[in-house]
Amino acid sequence: MENTQLIAQDNQLTSARFEYTALQRNLFYSVLKQISKNPKEKYVISIADLQRETGTSTDYSNYTEATKGIMKSIYEITKPNGNLLQIAMFSSCEYIKGQGLIEIEISEKLHPYLVYLKSNFTLFQLDVALCLSSKFSKRLYEILSQWKTFNGGVKEFDILELKTMLYLYNPKTQKESYKNWTDFEINVLKVAEKDFKRKDLNADISFTYKAHKQGRSFKKITFYIKQKSFQKMIDFQDNKAKQYGVLINEFMLTKTQAGKVLEQYSENELTKIFYEIRLDKNDNKITKSIGGYCAKRFGV
Q: What architecture is the 6-227 domain classified under in CATH?
């Protein structure tokens, strides 16, 4: 498991009722990965790297619509003191012109649920979450990962409870999608079941299920979650975005300056220069502002 990129998600978010498209989930996963490592940095996504990792090609306009949709989606979280917190996942998204980068800010009050995971959390593989093709596959992967180590991997849901988590049922309005069992099974369960078994994916879990009738209708469903040993995983390294974050947050360059640096220097060149700047800083050779020093060093 050492070389497997994992993301941790608080179970209150895993169980929450919200609807994301496949693209929105990929953006969410990419930010979540960065938060779980260092919540103090800004969260920057490289569109080119994300498309490479997921094997997709999506128009720029789809990203702007996706991030707008995320900012409109509201989580409802019950805090330990009983207070109800209503909060959006992204508080702002800024597209860096000419760089193919999205700079994302997260609501401060949401950080504890993404970072300080004390007792209840879900671990799932980033590369699997990113590469599952259906939004329902992605959501079921989150949900089933939460229960894969409990009760031998056997978990029963009321079907309406599961549909609520899949954003297919609204308890307030009682509006239900895929009301016919066959439609739900074909369009959601069978798609996800097949998706999990893809040979190119190497997912750490697979599942089978059994639906239970009460009278003429199916009311409950039992999932049988099977874990597999971790195999070789995609090394998700968004170096372009990371280096952009270093230039802004550590070396105090402006966004315009950071963009110019990324245009002028290769990743290997930047790695070498970053190391040299840090040595100079440790040796007290930088007597004025770090931003001014780095701007001069990079010629921006």
A: Orthogonal Bundle (1.10)
